[in-house]
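dude i think i finally got it to work??
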Amino acid sequence: MPVRGDDLSGMKRLKRCRERHDVKGLCRLLRHRDVRVRRGAAKNLGELGEPDGVCCLQRALERDTDDYVRHWSIDALANISTPEAVDVLAGVMFGPQPQAARIAENALAGMNSPSAQHVMIVKSVLQKNDWAALEALSREQATSLAIVISSLQYRAWPSAKQQRILGAAIRLGVTPPPEYRKELADMGYFISGLHTVDDALRRLNHSKPDVRCAAAERLGGSGYGWLRYLLYRRFRKELARGTDLRFAAALVSSIEKLGSQRAIEDCKELLNTRSGREAADAAAILAQVGSLNAVEILFGFVVNPPPPPAYQNPDHVFNLLVQHSPNTIDILRPHLGDESVEVRRVVANLIGASNHPDRVFLLGVLGKDPDRAIQHNALRALARDNSPEAANRLDEIGGEVADCELLLDSLASMTTPDAITYLKDRDPGATLLFGAVILGHEQPVQGASARLLMNAYILEKKRWEWHPVGPEAISDSAGNFALALRNPPDDARLCLKIVLPAVSAGKDATAYTTEVNLRPGEVHHITAQVDTVVNYLSVRERS
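look at this
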C-alpha cells in the first residue's frame, strides 16, 4: 500500500523531534491525523521524561480514541513521574474508561513517587469503604480526594459514600466543585465563595440539628448586622421549645458575633430569676456559647448564687464550667489574683476538676495562696494528679508553702517515685517502700494494687482489725510500685496487701496479704512474690 506524502512527512517530523528532544513538536504531533504518528509521539514523550509534556499527554488521554495512544500516554506520564503527571494518572484511574483506568492503576502502583503512593492509599481506602481510614487521611492525600470528587466514577457511587468522601475532602481543605453546592449545604458545610447567606438561612429549618447549627454559625460569621433580628427571633422560639439547646446556643453565639448581647442577657435573666427547666436550659446554653461574657455570667452565679426562688444548684453550673474546660479556665485565669477569697476558691476548685493543659502549673500558683483553704485544695488536687509533673511542682513550691505539714502529707499521699523521693528529702523520718510485684519467680505484674495496712484496736468492736494507711499504688509494666508512710508508731504492726488484676490471676481479682517489718525512717526495697497455686504472698528485701 503506497504511503501518502503528508503521512511520510509526519513520520519524518516525528524522527526529527525525537532527535532534537523537541517536546513542543512532539506535543503538536500528538494531534496528527495519522495514528502511527500520535503513538510515536506519546512513546517518545515518555522516553524524554520532560515535565512540559504532561499537559499534551493529558489532552491525548481525554480526546484520543486510539487505545495504543492512551496506553503510551499513560506509560509516558508514569515515566515523567512529577506530581502533575501523577494527578493526571489519578484522574484516569477514577475515570469512565475501564481499560485505561486499569492501566493507570498499574502504572501508579509501580511508581516510587510519594504522590503516587498517596493516590494508591486513597484508592485502597475507597475501594474497601474503610471510613476510619478515610477520616485519618492527611493533607498529603487532599489532592487525590479533590480528583476523586471531580470524577465521573464518583458520581456513580451511593450518596452515603459520596457524603463521607465530601466531608473528608472539606476537612482537608479541598474546595468542592460548584455543582455540589446544595448537597454540601444539606450536609452542614458552607464554603466561602460557594454558598450565599440565603443558603444558610434556608438551612435554619433543616431536619438535622447539625445542619441547623452549621447554618447559624455561617450566618454569625457573615458580618451582616441585619441578621441579628432574624436570629434573635428564632432564638426566642427555640428557647420556648427547649428541645434543641445546641441550636439555641449556636444562635446566641452568632448573635453575639454580630455585635449584640441581647440573647446572652436573656439567658442571664432566666438563670438569675427563674427556676426549674428554664434556668437549667439558660445555664446549658451559656456554657455551650463559651464566650467571655457567657462564662463570666456562669462564674458569677457560682460565686454569688441568687436568693430563692431563683437559687437552684450552683454545683450544676460549676459542673457545666468544668465540662467546657479548658476554654472556661483560659477565660477565668485572670481571677487567680482576685482580691476576693471566694473568687479564688471557686477558680481553684474549677482548675482542680478541669483537664486544662496548664492545670499542674496553675495549681502550683494556688498552692502558694495566702488563704489556707485555697492552698489546701490546690495541694490536694496536685496530690490527686499523682504524676511526676505534679510531684515536681509540689517540690518547686515547697519553700513557699506556709503549712509545711500540709505539703508533706500531700507528697506522702502520692505513689509516683518522684514524690516519695521529694518527701524523703523534706522529711527524713518518713518510711519509704519501693517494691516489685512478680508472679512465680520472675514474671512482673502490671496493674496490681499495693497498699499498707496497720493493725489497730477498735474500741467500739473491742477487737484488733487491719485498716489501710496511706495511698494505694498501682504497679507499672515492670511490676514496680512505691509507697510512703509518715510517723507510724514504733510498735505498729504493718501488713502489705497485694491485689492482682483478674487477667494476671487467671480468674477474678484476688487479694494476698502478709505482715512486713518496716523500720521507721528507713528506705526499703522489696520483692512481693505471689504464688497463685497455693494462694501465698511472700516478701523479701532486696539489697
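The longest helix spans residues 5-20.
im so relieved honestly
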